[in-house]
Amino acid sequence: xxSIIGGYNYDVFISYxxxxxxxxxxxxxxxxxxxxxxxxxxxxxxSVYFDINxxxxxxxxxxxxxxxxxxxxxxxxxxxISRTYCDSKSFxxxxxxxxxxxxxxxxxxxxxxxxxxxxxxxxxxxIRIHDLDEEDINLCESVLGSVLRGVEFIYNSAGVNRPLRxxxxxxxxxLNKTIYRDQINKVSNAIKEIVKGLRAGQDLPxxxxxxxxMPWEETEKGKLITVKxxxxxxxxxxxxxxxxxxxxxxxxxGIYVYPKxxxxxxxxxxxxxxxxxxxKNLTGDIANDYxxxxxxxxxxxxxxxxxxxKPLRVVGPTTTTVFEENRMSIAGFARKVYVxxxxxxxxxxxGEAQEIMIRVTxxxxxxxxxxxxxxxxxxxxxxKLYFNIAGLIAQKxxxxxxxxxxxxxxxxQMVNPQSYEAYSRGMVEIEKGTEEGMNKGLEYLHxxxxxxxDDPYANAGLALGYLSIAHGGLDxxxxxxxxxxxxxxxxxxxxxxxxxxTALAETYLYKSWKYPESEKHFKRxxxxxxxxxxxxxxxxxxxxxxxxxxxxxxxxxxxQKCDPYNPQHTGWLGGLYNYAxxxxxxxxxxxxxxxxxxxxxxxxxVLINAYLGLGRNDEALETxxxxxxxxxxxxxxxxxVYIAIGRREEASEILKEIxxxxxxxxxxxxxxxxxxxxxxxxxxxxxxxxxxLVLPWLAIEEGCKPLHSDPRWDEFLKRVNLLRR
Length: 725
Prior knowledge:
725 residues; alpha/beta; Rossmann fold; Serine Threonine Protein Phosphatase 5, Tetratricopeptide repeat
């Protein structure tokens, strides 16, 4: 029997493991039903190859029958993916699945074809009959070079993971809510769409050097635009002389006319939320995982810019990583984080140009793919590519991008590939928050600046990196100075970069205590990208310092909204409630932080302060002892409780222990000495250099109240540019 397209021997090849057909003949029944459905779907006869007695083991002495190679010359390959199929020792895997993928990549159509509706599909149509282990999924995807999707025939109930049968005794117990007959129909319809695409002869674009343009600039939206060389005789001056007047008119129309025409349209006034999942590396080499991280960060950065002009919330990377690591269901994730769309990215192949796939799935009211496409771009165009993809995604999820929006959005520029790669890898390490991550991150960032001293991203990254170090116990003593140095340089290089403004705002806040300048740059950073959770976080604590507590809490809630599964944002929101005297709310946030990260130390500190504020001293003592078991260095918490309940001698012993250990935490030692009445010693630490970046916040600490009546306190306030409250 031949194929409906010349040059092929079969239309469909069914590949499976004999083990999956032994028990109840599931595969045989599936093939029989599929053939009947195909007869009702196609006018022509569709040829299906199905070997009732396949090879099930592979030995080194086995030869692959030449006739099998001929049978693999088919249009569509259907592997029945089970818990046993993904086995490199099986005949089906090695000489059917892998062989077809390799063969299809070489033939006239290629492995991936474009469907009539514009989406890209693989000629491999997986049928999944079991939920798979992660390693099996990764193995399949490494061969396919794309995500494993297909049609599922899986029956799931409590403790059950088996193939879906045509006649189920308890169909309503199936958690997947799938019906066998409907799934057969889906397979048949998928085959029909692939055949249509093959008949149209539409190869997958993007094999040449390509670059996507903004969606509103494309004549055919969603397609890749091939970059062509400038034709001979090209006269730039003549072209510009014609373009410039037209461009001026269009800009004026965009600014003054279009807003009036579209005023009152409610379509884009409703906030939409998207979550960008960690990109998957499908190149088959885990050494390339960092490339997937670079691609993810670029999209997160560029999509965030859309929020300048549209109410778009882009969920932060800590939250999406938690979802990925805990394998939370998509529906569960959407409910917990209130996400409307899920964005997935896949690195398919590498080389001078990298091939990636982007898929956007709408989660409510029903789960459906609204956009999927493949892209190719040179590393130097990575930001331009994702700027364009961001615009396209915005349109696909329902935003109207008007001419005045294009005027406001700063166009992404080409980057130095080596510098940008080092910068991206550095920021990934810095965000880990560990000593090793900080050190390795700074190494990468310095390498980026060495490659390209005028890279604004690398300079801003170094500024933020050193400021992060200054927040912890890793500061060698000059982190604030270095942070300031790189922040000012970054600003000279690019004043349109939200990360640059964030770095400068933090420098003014923590280093030079120039608060009006700090607030100006925080506001500008959040205008350029309202999704920067850490900018909201630092701005909130600045507002707290300035006595604007209601604004501080509102700002901190925005940080929490941007990255809700970052325990820091929940724990420290509880800290703000303590400063505001709202102790019950502080307790609620502390308990929420434990749901995000078990036994989160910050959560215990917030609880202790809240219990003390409410006079629940026994609970405060119990919590402090629990924290001390988790972190033997957390003596400051126990000290606070001892002072509150009048056990001053024991508090004094804690101070001696801390001092004998060489602790240089001036913020802690000022308060401890003040609480014990050692006023001169408290002021000595208050003037200690190099000072920590949180020094001004001692002005709002309850533990410093014994110092307020001393004239030296006014000198301190003047030094940090604060007024007595």
